[in-house]
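Protocol step 4 of 6.
Sequence for Exonuclease domain-containing protein (Petrolisthes manimaculis) entered exactly as in the expression construct, tag removed. Do not edit the line below.
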Amino acid sequence: MATDSKMPRLSERLVWIDLEMTGLDVSKEEIMEAAVLVTDSELNVVAEGPNLVLKVDGTVLNQMNDWCKSHHGKSGLTDACRKSTITLSAAEDQLLQFVTQHTEKGKAPLAGNSVHADKRFLDKYMPKLMKHLHYRIVDVSTVKELCR
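Step 5 output, C-alpha cells:
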C-alpha cells in the first residue's frame, strides 16, 4: 500500500493546551479550566479536544486576587467552577485519552501562548498527561516578542 508523503504523521503533531487558573502561584493556585487541540506540523487542526471546567473549592475561588476575581467572574468561569462536577483527576484522564488518540507517546510537544505558565501547572497537577508529551515546548509568545 502506497503512503502519501504529504500526510502528516502522528510524530509531527503539536498539542495546544490552554489553562485558566485561580492565579499564577503553582504552590497554592488551582486549574479552573483546560482546553486542548492537536495540530499537524503545518498548524492544521487535526482534532479539537475537550474544553473542561473543573470543580474548584469555594475557599480557593474566594482567595483569588482581584484581577482573577474580576476576569473569571465576568466570564462566568468562577460560577461554572462552583457548579462543575469534573475533578482534577477526571479532567487529566479525559485530556490524556484525547491526546493519546492523536499523538505518539513522547513525540508531540506542548504548545501555546505563554505556555510555560500552563506547563508548571500541568507538571504539578497532570503529570500523567505531561509524561505523554515531548519535553520541548512551543511558545508562540516568543515569536510575538521577537517581532516587536
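Step 6, annotate. The two ends are 48 Å apart (CA to CA).
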